[in-house]
Every structure is written in C-alpha cells, then in structure tokens.
Design brief:
The chain has about 350 residues and is an all-alpha fold. Helices cover about 75% and strands about 0% of the residues. It has one domain (about 5-340): Farnesyl Diphosphate Synthase (Orthogonal Bundle). The longest helix is centred in the middle third of the chain and has 31 residues, at about 155-185.
C-alpha cells in the first residue's frame, strides 16, 4: 500500500497479522480432515496472503474508532469482511473467466492445470471451477466464524451482523446486475451507476465504515454521516477502477488491462461512451466488448475512441465531484484523529493507481 496515510497503513498491518493467525487455525482444521485437502488449504492461504490492500477491513476499524470504539474489539468483524472479499474474488474470477489475479494464476486456472498435471479423469476446467467455487464458499463460512471472535456485547454483535448481512446482500445483488447488464449489452447509465454503487461503492467503503461504527454503538447521526462520506467515495473508487481496468498498467494492477473489455463489462465509462460516440464508432466498441481474443491493436483503438469522445473526461470529472462530496461530508464528523485519518484516506483513495 504505497503512499497510504501512515495510520491507514498501521491498521492494515494489524489486519494482516491477525488474519494470518485466524486463517492458519482454520486451514489447519481443513488439512486435518484429509491429505487431499492440503493443496486447497495452500491455495487459500496464498490467495489471501498474495496482496490485496485490506481496504475494507481497515475501514471497519476506522469506522469503529470514529464512533469512539477500540479498534482491537472490531478486528474479528474486520477479518470477516476480508474473508468475504476473498470469497467474492474467487467467484468473480470464475464468472469473468479471468486468467490471473494479483499477478498469479486465478484459482480455477491453477486447479485445472493441477488436474492435467496429475492425470485426473474428467474435464480439467470443470474441476478447476468446482474447486474455486468451494474455496469461495469455505472463505464465506470462515467469515462468519471470524465475525464472532469479538468481546463486544451481544447486542452490538447482533446489530453489526445485521449490517454485515446488508453488505453481503448488496454486493451479491450488484454482481448479479453486472452479469445481466453484460449479457443484455446494456448501455443504461443509471443501471451502470447502480451496479457500481452496489457491487463496489457500498461494499468497499460505506458498509465497512458503518459496520465498524455500529459495533461501537454509534448513533444514527454518525452512521448517516458515514454514508454521506462512503457513498460518493465508494462510487469514485469504482469509477477509478473502471478507468484502471482499461487504461491501467499490468505491472501496477496485477491483471490484464484489457480484462474489462474482454469480459464485456458495462461500466459507467462504457455507458458514457455509448451516449457520445457516432453509431459507427460505437459499433466498433460494441464488437470489442466481450471478446476474449482482443488483440493489442483492438484495445488501443477502443482506448482512443473512449478518450476522443470525452467519455474518459466525463468519468474523471465525476470522480472529482464525488471526491469533493466525500471530503465535505468528512468535515461534518465529530473532530478526532480518526476523522482526520479518514480525510487523509479520502485524498489517497481517489488518486490511487492500483
């Protein structure tokens, strides 16, 4: 997490340390069930350890501090959010037919290769897909276990678990809408904004902040203000991700920068382009979307069309406006060091390059 505000980096280190301990215990249980489960345990450990910014669990801890809580009391729920994210990524890579994740083979690809190397019977790709689904489900179960490892009063844990379920429901709904939008070739801007809000904005920022605050017993005023911060910031996060998904550098993002185009994602960037491009140019973009065999020349042509029609500028301007709204809302929080940390996080978050 380069250039991250120091306090955010410190919270990330706490999450990493505690996640290693929690996951180690859970995976030791898995290995003890049968030797054949050892490679699955190794894969899940490597997947979780191989990067990721721990943004969501860090925001749980920060939201807890902003509401006056001790972050150590919220570590278990924070780990739950990270393990849920692990589940989402494992399943998302399969849904998107992604080859890589964080610079390494995607789990379904790795286990398809293992199937071939060991000479197993049946379809290697189906085997890899099955393992990826099951590992995601396992992380989902382990998330619930982690959530309950807290000494907070039962009423706060229950309130927090309800908030955690809201987070899970929204991200699954957003993912489903994303799949539907790609299949139906949607160019609807409002739908694209809804998808970005549900599958990423609220999931990545608003709900983690609110979850931490609820666990600290925050009132409606603080929880509401955190939504005023989180909703625009989370949407800005996803819009920045959309730009990185087409214009980012592979060495920085750890995944193919043609991925969003090859997967046919109907992002806000694509919706903005559809509203601006002449029919012939839009048809060129449309033909490129969803093609896994996109050549570099095709990618560069689409990039040029997105830039020249003003779609990139429109998304960038929207990000700037959303960031301003998040900053203004941050100023309404009760003054504290943690509120200052959140303000610093906002400034870093909207200018990130990975």
């Amino acid at each position: 997490m380069s250039d991250v505000p120091p306090r955010i980096s410190a919270l990330s280190a706490v999450v990493n340390d505690r996640l290693e301990v929690h996951l180690g215990r859970a995976l030791d249980r898995l290995r003890a069930m049968h030797p054949d489960l050892g490679p699955l345990a190794d894969e899940l450990r490597a997947f979780v350890a191989d990067g990721g910014k721990r943004l969501r669990p860090v925001l749980v801890l920060l939201g807890h501090q902003i509401a006056g809580g001790d972050p150590d009391d919220a570590v278990g729920p924070a780990l739950a959010v990270e393990l849920l994210h692990t589940c989402a990524l494992l399943h998302d890579d399969l849904i998107d037919a992604a080859d890589t994740r964080r610079g390494r083979p995607a789990t379904h690809v790795a286990f398809a290769t293992r199937h071939r190397d060991l000479g197993y019977g049946g379809d290697p790709d189906r085997f890899g897909a099955a393992i990826a689904i099951l590992l995601g489900d396992l992380a989902f179960v382990q998330a619930d276990e982690a959530f309950l490892t807290t000494s907070l009063p039962d009423d706060r844990v229950l309130a927090g678990f309800r908030a955690f379920n809201d987070l899970r429901e929204e991200v699954m709904a957003g993912q489903a809408l994303d799949v539907i939008a790609a299949a139906s070739r949607s160019t609807d801007l409002d739908k694209a904004l809804t998808i970005a809000t549900l599958k990423s904005g609220r999931y990545s920022v608003t709900r983690p902040l609110q979850l931490g605050a609820v666990l600290a017993g925050a009132g409606d005023d603080v929880v509401g203000t955190l939504q005023d911060v989180g909703d625009p910031l989370g949407l800005a996060f996803q819009l920045r991700d959309d730009l990185l998904g087409v214009f980012g550098k592979h060495g920085e993002t750890g995944k193919s920068v043609a991925g969003d185009l090859a997967e046919g994602k109907r992002t806000v960037l694509i919706a903005e382009a559809a509203a601006r491009l002449p029919a012939q140019d839009w048809q060129g973009v449309e033909r490129a979307l969803g093609r896994p065999d996109l050549a570099d020349a095709d990618v560069e042509q689409v990039r040029a069309l997105l830039r020249d029609c003003g779609a990139v500028d429109a998304v960038t301007a929207r990000i700037d406006d959303l960031a301003d709204r998040a900053r203004a809302a941050t100023a309404l929080l009760p003054p504290s060091t943690s509120a200052q940390d959140l303000a610093a996080f906002v400034d870093w978050f909207v200018t990130r390059r990975t």
